[in-house]
Every structure is written in C-alpha cells, then in structure tokens.
Automatic annotation (TrEMBL):
This is PucR family transcriptional regulator. It comes from Amycolatopsis decaplanina DSM 44594. It holds the Pfam family HTH_30. InterPro entries: CdaR-like_regulators, CdaR_GGDEF, PucR_C-HTH_dom, PucR_C-HTH_sf, RsbRD_N_dom. Residues 27-165 form the RsbT co-antagonist protein RsbRD N-terminal domain.
Amino acid sequence: MHYETVLREGSAVVVAELAVEVEKQLPGLIDTTVEQIRAEMPVYREAQFVTLAELRTSVRNNLEFVMRTLRGTEEPDLAQARATGRARALQGAPLPELLRAYRIGLTEVWNRFVELTASGEHQDLRGLVAATSAIWALIDDYAEALTTTYRDTTAEVMLAHQSRRSALVEALFAGGAATEGTLWDIARVLELSLDGAYVVVAAETPRVGHEPLPQIENRLRDRHHASAWRLTPDLQVGVVSMRDPSVSQVIIELLRENQTGRIGVSPVFTGLGNTSRALHLARVALSSMMPGTTGMVQFNESPLAGLVASAPEASVQLAHHVLRPLLDLPGDDRNVLLLTLRTWFECQGSTKLTSERMFCHPNTIRHRLKRISEELGRSLTDPADIAELGAALRALHMFPDTSHLPPPRDPLR
C-alpha cells in the first residue's frame, strides 16, 4: 500500500495527533462533505443512484474509517472502499463520479488538517507535510481498491447479463417451449418488440469461434436496427428488427459489405414468436448455395432452391429417380447431356440461347434434347415433367457428391 510506505514512525505520531483533533469535528465534516458532493455532482444531487440517506451513511462509514486509519488505531483495511466500489457498480453509478466523491471527502479531511497546522498550538509545517503525504497516499490506496473492485464487479455483472442474454437468444431460436410470458421477458431483455417486423440471418462461420459478420450488432445499432445474435460452431445467427419491412434491402446491403462465405436470410416476418421458423428458412436459403462459395440468398428469392435444400434426402432421391438414365451413361455422354439440360433450363427453354451459350449449332442442341427426352422417358414440353426435371437438376447441383452413388433406398421397402 502507498499509505504504509509513506509514513515513518515519527510522522505517524504527528498525523495521529492531528487526526484525534479532526475526529472531534467529524459530524460537521460529514455534513460538509455531503453538501459538497451534492453541490458539485448532479448524479448525487438528483439521487440517480443513491438516496441522500444512503449517501450520508456511505460518507460517514468511509470518513470514520479514514480517521481510525490516520489515528493509527486500525490497520489500513480497504474493505470499506471495496464494499462501496461493488455497491456502486451494481447500481450502475459511473466510476469517475465515484472517484470524484472520494476525492471530495478526503480533500475535506485535508482542509481540516491545514486549519489545525496553520494556527494555534498545532501550527507545524512538518506536521502539515506529513498529514498531506498520509492523506494523498490514502487517496491513492482508496482509488486503487475502489477501481479494481468496481471493474471486477462490472465485468461480473456484464458476464452474468451476457450469459442470460445468450440463454434468451438460444430460447428464441429454439422456439417451441416459449410461452407468452417467456417471450415477453425475451423481448424486454433483448430490447425487441413482440409484434415487430424481422428477418433472421444465418451466416456460415469461416472456422470455429470466428464471426463471419464481426461487430454486426453494433453496425446495425448505428443504423437504428436492434438485433440479437448467437455464435455456434458452424453459424452466426441473428434476428434483426426492422422499423418497417421496406428497409429489408438496407439490411441486406449491410450484410453484403464484408461477407466471407454463404449467408442465408429469411423472408420478412412479423412477431418474435416466429423466429424459430424463420431461422429454418434462413438455413434453407444458405444451403441452397454450393459449399465453398461466397454469396447471399434470401429465401423468397428462390423458392425451388429452398424447397430442395429443406429436404436433402428426399431431393437426392428425386434426382436419382428422375435422372438415373443419364447418370448411368458413360462419362462424356453423361456430362454433355446433363450440361445441355441444365443450360436449357437456365436459358428458359430457348434452343437458340442454349446453342449460343454452349457454342453449338442449334440443330446439335435439338438433337441432344431429343436424346435426353428419350433416355429419360420424359417430355420437355409437359409442364409436370419439366417441373420434376427442374427440381432434380437443382438437387443434383446442390448435392453433387451423390451423383455417382446408387439411388437412395426406398424407405417404404
């Protein structure tokens, strides 16, 4: 401690004698300190964190300890400073104001020492120097103990708050078990509206423990959008509140700024209780993109892709059932015909555009399409057949590693 190293045996005696005299003035010293604190500090004058009675009690306890320490009747135990630091941290009082209140109190003590050493029988420059050194050393010790305890308590409170917030975010995304009362509590703690408009975002993590959208909550808050986020080993997921559905594009553009992988976004939805369902749709949107790519898809941008991604096993079975005759062809034949069929779909069924994109004569494309139709036993003019082919191609594109495998086992057999 600073205090114990500052005072030598001789100066300690001088300080103790002065402290005995100052202690006689303690009631007035307490009143003066309280008045000074309230005059100089609005947070105490307006009782924002402690009442007048609580302030007076705190000032009395701390000044009584100071006087006992200066008299030498008690070892410099900073438990009172630590207790005050913890109490004010729990109340949310600002640390600078708290330290300032301590300085005011100890400065009032020093003023009484100055008055004693400047007049009467105690007039003694050596005594004033000793008292000044002792008091300011004590201020240093107080400030250090109070600050350390205040910061430790603040960190403890923040950790507890973050743990509770994380649990509530988890409950929000899990859905199902949340009652109306639980939802109200979640909305209150997360500062979200029960009936507001939202989107859910699911962003693929680059590696475990790393956020693909760093500082996204703060960046959204800067644009007046409240949100709540959770990091899992494979995803960073968040529910984002919108002032109205029309600002969805603003949020999308913000998410695009630093994207490093796949990002899925749910449709705009209303009501916090629908977050779990929206998370499923955001995951589906993310899964509609090829692994290893970078991009963003909102669920309603590609309903077919979403449908395929939401049921991988069924989609793979569909692809094998519909496209098996092509998949069984030798490598070159298979690749050329599948590429032709996929390009034809991308060109909206235009033979001319397909031939231009594949650098082939239109008659070549017509010949290939005719063979595809014969191999598959399906018509490229029948809407039902076209719908099945489109879904099968989408599934094959989304799950390419399954194209060489035998058809999935029929679960009904």
